[in-house]
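Tokens for Purine phosphorylase family 1. Go.
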Amino acid sequence: MRFFTALLMMMAFFLAGFPSMKEAASSRQKDGQPIAVQGAMDIEISVLLKEMGQYKQETHGNYSYYIGRIKGIPVVISRTGIGMVHAAASTALLIEHYDPRAIINQGTAGGHDPNLRVFDSVIGMEVMNIGRLSSERLGEGQGIRPKTWKFVKTEMRENGEIKEYASFKSNPSLVKAALRAAPKYKYGKVVIGKVGSSDFLNREVDRIHWFHKKAGTSVEEMEAASVAQVAIGFNIPFLSVRTVSNSEVSGDKIEDLETAGQYCAEFAVEIVKTMGNGPFSSLAN
């Protein structure tokens, strides 16, 4: 009997050094869930890291996360790596380890809309996987006909039911926050548009025109649609913001990834400041 009493006392003493689940949850609520901001490359997150000043770096697998604050607002900056698979994997790890209250996927993009110039920025009202295509059947020697390809919807299982998405909508409150921050963007115009994503780098003018006409895309890049798909799977609000770094269809001869990456990150900082620490409901007022 004395043995069991002593054992219970030792266990109570040992557990006293650790917070209960309730205390841990309360602590996290007190600190606040972070806003996550993603960039595929170093040039797309360097401004964000500078804005934080002091931060803690953590690595999960080959993916890096930087935890700190911007103007007192908890943030986690994620360097996803380039491409759809990297973006999906790093987003899943981001959600698992940091439980963000929102995800802003931002960075550079190629222009699809002839009216968009280099350094203009697009608030992605929706994003679409433009690499998800099907072709008609053609036999050997019949060639390929890209202009006959059709877009395929993305299937998601929600509450046991299959739901199909032609595109993924950004959270309306986050779009409002981006619009409120837009006047502070001084490097070009800010428009609401549609972001197309794929692992194919399109430089053929006729193909770009085809995407713009058939899918309504404003710009293209390689991450946002997979981020959106994972975010929806975990019920996390997301927003896509992209700055045009090059365009084959606007007449611009500039191609400047580094500057566009800096400008978009600066815009993302202003969006974070607009969101602040309050509930999303306040952004709609």
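The longest strand covers residues 102-111.
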